[in-house]
Description:
Keywords: DNA-binding
Protein name: Helix-turn-helix transcriptional regulator
CATH superfamily of the domain at 26-112: lambda repressor-like DNA-binding domains
Largest sheet: 2 strands, antiparallel
Domain HTH cro/C1-type: 41-95
Pfam family, one: HTH_3
Strand content: 5-15%
InterPro entries: Cro/C1-type_HTH (IPR001387), Lambda_DNA-bd_dom_sf (IPR010982), TransReg_Diox_bact_type (IPR050807)
Shape: elongated
Amino acid sequence: MAASDRSVVVDIRTRRAVKERAPETPDGPDPLLRTVYGVILRDERLDQDRTLDDVARAVGMSKQYLSEVERGRKEPSSEMLHSVCDALGLPIEQLLTRAVRRITASRRLAAHRPTGTPRVELLAA
């Protein structure tokens, strides 16, 4: 991954970089649905300060499998998605709604972003 393909997440309270991650709105084709679901589930889990192990135990799956789901590497069944959502207290409808919003936002940004233009994102806590 080239340096220009990464975004830095900054905690605006401490003004320090928290972590580096791939952009959620990549140039090119739409992200896979499993990738979008994974990002949403990981964000929800982290917002609740829960570990992979905690959620995986609640669902009855290995934390390695849950990690792969969160990274978009595994395509979970609808039953598995429902179980993870239940463990997080996230209605499945919200998962679906958030996924549609992310994909729609990705398409809008891709349509309006000139190629080669640096991108700046402000993420609030």
